[in-house]
Amino acid sequence: MKSEPLILGIETSCDETGVGIVRGQTLLADAIASSVEEHARFGGVVPEVASRAHLEAMVPTIRRACETAGIKPSDVDAVAVTSGPGLAGALLVGVAAAKGLALSLDKPIYGVNHLAAHVAVDTLEHGQLPKGCVAMLVSGGHSSLLAVEDITEGVVPMGNTIDDAAGEAFDKVARVLGLPFPGGPWIDKAARDGDSQYVTFPRGLTSQRDLERHRFDFSFSGLKTAVARWVEARRRDGEDVPVNHVAAAFQEAVCDVLTRKAIDACKDRGFEHLLIGGGVAANSRLRAMAEERAAAAGIAVRVPRPALCTDNGAMVAALGSELVRAGKSPSPLDLPADSSMPITEVLN
Ligand code: KG4
Ligand code: ZN
Question: For a pocket test of ligand 1, which of 35, 170, 189 has the largest count of ligand atoms closer than 8 A to its C-beta?
Answer without folding.
Answer: 170
